[in-house]
Amino acid sequence: MPSQTNNSDLIPLGSRPIDRAGHHRSDPAWLAEAFARDDALVLILQGGLPLTSGDGGLVWLGPEAAKLAPKAEPLFLGLDKAGAPVFALEMPGDFDVNTSLIAGTGEFGDLRMSLQRMPEMDANLASTARSLFEWHRSHRFCARCGAESERAEAGWKRVCPDCKAEHFPRTDPVAIMLATYGDKCLVGRQSMWPKGMWSCLAGFIEPGETLEQGAARELHEEAGIRCDPGQAEYLFCQPWPFPSSLMIGLILPAENDDITVDKSELESARWITRAEAREVIAGTHPEISAPMRFAVAHHIMKEWAERPDGSS
């Protein structure tokens, strides 16, 4: 039987630590007042990299952050549990933290590495901010008429001044799935990954197909494994800010175990037993290391590995 931990709120990056308070996004006067409040919390990024301290957490600034980049438009993230407004700012490319007013507070670091050490709230907010800033960066121009669009609603929308079209942040659905065959599961790896790391297979959902159909299609395309979409088991999902996806975790029973790898997608794929999967999660397997703990793939493998032997 599935465990009782199938809850996306318990998955890294998927927690809901603050109230997004979306009704304030269209109130410029409230936003300006909130950004100037003494208790305002501001995180900053540069080129998708968050400013982090030595312990791995975000460097939190107050309203004085506006002095660092006067032309930067604040992104309103919501209200924390104490009611304090939370914002994010993206620093321009020529901003140098070491010569700024906040020199010595931290450094801009790779988000993937930082997420391994961040507290839950920091990870969720840094991921959200990065996704939105990346969306603004790649969607400057109106998809309808080609004119340069403008930010609106505290960073949660873009509006075209010419044709008045409204554009909203996109999130791409991705199936990330573990195929099982009896008491073994399928793992794969890409050549760019760290040596020894194997993970679940994954792929984007295409127009005109369901989540389950997309998962089954990807398994067949990448590894030659046939699955019935109707037998797919949903586990949980996770926002993934690289650049902006929703990783949807599934387990699918396989109908065959002969692997045919598509080398343009994977370097290799293999079956491992449930006992081996437990070793992978525990970090004791002699050849295979698990995906990082902040990745949903780690938790999919863990969920299946911890089920009783003989269960699906």
UniProtKB/TrEMBL annotation:
Q: Name one GO cellular component term.
A: cytosol
Ranges where the Nudix hydrolase domain occurs: 169-294
* GO terms for MF: metal ion binding; NADH pyrophosphatase activity; RNA NAD-cap (NMN-forming) hydrolase activity
Question: What CDD domains would the database entry show?
Answer: NUDIX_NADH_pyrophosphatase_Nudt13 (cd03429)
What keywords would UniProt list here? Hydrolase, Magnesium, Metal-binding, NAD
Q: Which domain of life is it from?
A: Bacteria
Chain intervals for the UniProt region annotation (Disordered) = 1-22
Instruction: List, separated by semicolons, the cofactors it needs.
Output: Mg(2+); Zn(2+)
Enzyme superclass (EC): hydrolase
Q: Does the keyword Magnesium apply?
A: yes
The record's catalysed reaction(s) read: a 5'-end NAD(+)-phospho-ribonucleoside in mRNA + H2O = a 5'-end phospho-adenosine-phospho-ribonucleoside in mRNA + beta-nicotinamide D-ribonucleotide + 2 H(+)
Ranges annotated as spanning the membrane: none
Give the EC number(s) listed in the UniProt record: 3.6.1.22
Task: Locate the coiled-coil region(s) and give their ranges.
Answer: none
Q: Name one Pfam family in it.
A: NUDIX
Q: Which GO terms describe its biological process?
A: NAD+ catabolic process; NADP+ catabolic process
Question: Which PROSITE patterns did the record assign?
Answer: NUDIX (PS51462), NUDIX_BOX (PS00893)
What is the similarity comment for this entry? Answer: Belongs to the Nudix hydrolase family. NudC subfamily.
Name of the protein in its database record? NAD(+) diphosphatase
